[in-house]
Design goal:
single chain; mainly beta; 8-stranded antiparallel beta sheet; two-stranded antiparallel ribbon; 0% helix; elongated
């Protein structure tokens, strides 16, 4: 439910999502309904795992450029914590990392609460000593969503509060001349949906 702005690593070469952290995804390619207000073009929605696990489980992938993993950790009979992380090995000039956290609580027979957190960032440093040229790029996204679902015999009530922040900073320096460019987007929202059942 929380938007991720400019969702790409290394100009789109790497995805920003830890695939093992999510149970599924959906792609909306053209026009949106009221549930996707103020969105242009398409949208990819990722759905975090929201089941209650009974045992500890680790899912990890190691490649020559990056590694990622998801740890499933039961924290009680009715709650589970999912932790995911990913990082690259290119940290001499460029580095990327992503972190996901999802906490699921079955609060009674009719209520389920889910807290999801995401943080991702890119860091690039390019230094040319012959020209006294140094360039630094720092991109980061942080998002949080709190979801509560109440399911009774008469109705289903879903409430979702979200926060998302995107920041991009470019520092350039050539000899005695320096330039700093920064941009960002911060958004918070609340949405509720009520469905009557027969």
């Amino acid at each position: 439910g929380a938007p991720i702005f400019n969702a790409s690593h290394l100009l789109g070469l790497f995805s920003v999502f830890n695939a093992s952290h999510f149970r599924g995804m959906a792609l909306v390619k053209n026009r949106h309904d009221a549930a996707f207000s103020n969105r242009l073009g398409g949208e990819v929605s990722f759905y975090p795992t929201d089941s209650i696990a009974r045992k500890v489980h680790l899912d990890a992938t190691v490649s020559f450029m990056e590694s990622e993993g998801t740890l499933t950790l039961p924290t009680g009979e009715h709650s589970t914590l999912y932790l995911s992380g990913r990082g690259s090995y290119l940290k001499l000039r460029y580095g990327l990392q992503d972190y996901n956290l999802t906490f699921v609580q079955q609060a009674g027979a009719h209520d389920k609460i889910r807290l999801s957190l995401y943080h991702g960032q890119d860091r690039m440093n390019l230094l040319q000593e012959d020209f006294a040229d140094e360039n630094k790029l720092n991109w980061q996204n942080t998002a949080a969503a709190l979801h509560w679902q109440h399911h009774s015999s008469r109705f289903i009530l879903q409430q979702n509060a979200t926060f998302s922040r995107y920041r991009n900073t470019l520092d350039m320096g050539i000899s005695s001349v320096s330039l700093n460019l920064s941009s960002g987007i911060t958004q918070a929202s609340y949405a509720a949906r009520l469905e009557w059942t027969r």
